[in-house]
Structure formats: C-alpha cells, structure tokens
Specification:
alpha+beta; PepSY domain-containing protein; 5-stranded antiparallel beta sheet; globular
C-alpha cells in the first residue's frame, strides 16, 4: 500500500503532466477510504482502498474543490472528481 506522501506526489505529477490547471493541492486533507465501492470508470463496482487528494481550481472568481482518486494498493490514478461528475484518466 502506498503512503499519503506517495499519493500526494502521484496526484501532483499527474496534474502537472496532464497540464491540469490548479491553484492548490491540500496535502492536509488527503484521506484513505478503505473497501470503498468504486462508482465510476473502469473499476466501477469493485471494492478498493482509495486515497482522495483534494486540489483547487479557479472557476471565475471562486476556487472549486476537486479530487484525484488513487488506488491505495497499486498507486494507479483512477479518476478526477469535479463538481460536474468524474473525468476518466487517460494514460
């Protein structure tokens, strides 16, 4: 299982590599959800241990929170949660 620090690093690397614009990554609120049923993407319906890493994006004059969800066992980035739904990760 990866650590919170590794989850933060993977999320930051992905956001930077994919040119996703963000203004903050909240390392203090990274949370581990154990045996969580995945609701979206290619792992939909599976129970996984997931790290959720929150990042902020500017939408007009306000900052909106979004999350990078990472498989805590393998380190695979699963998807990004936005206020409008999820975004699949394209490798």
């Amino acid at each position: 299982m990866i650590t919170k620090e590794e989850a933060y690093k993977k999320a930051k690397e992905y956001l930077d590599k994919s040119n996703t614009q963000y203004i903050t990554i909240d390392s203090d609120s990274i949370k581990l959800e154990e045996n969580e049923v995945v609701s979206y993407g290619k792992n939909e319906g599976n129970k996984l241990n997931i790290f959720s890493v929150c990042f902020g994006q500017l939408w007009g004059m306000e900052e909106r929170s979004m999350f990078v969800d990472i498989n805590a066992d393998t380190g695979e980035i699963l998807y990004i949660m936005t206020p409008h739904g999820y975004i699949d990760i394209k490798e």
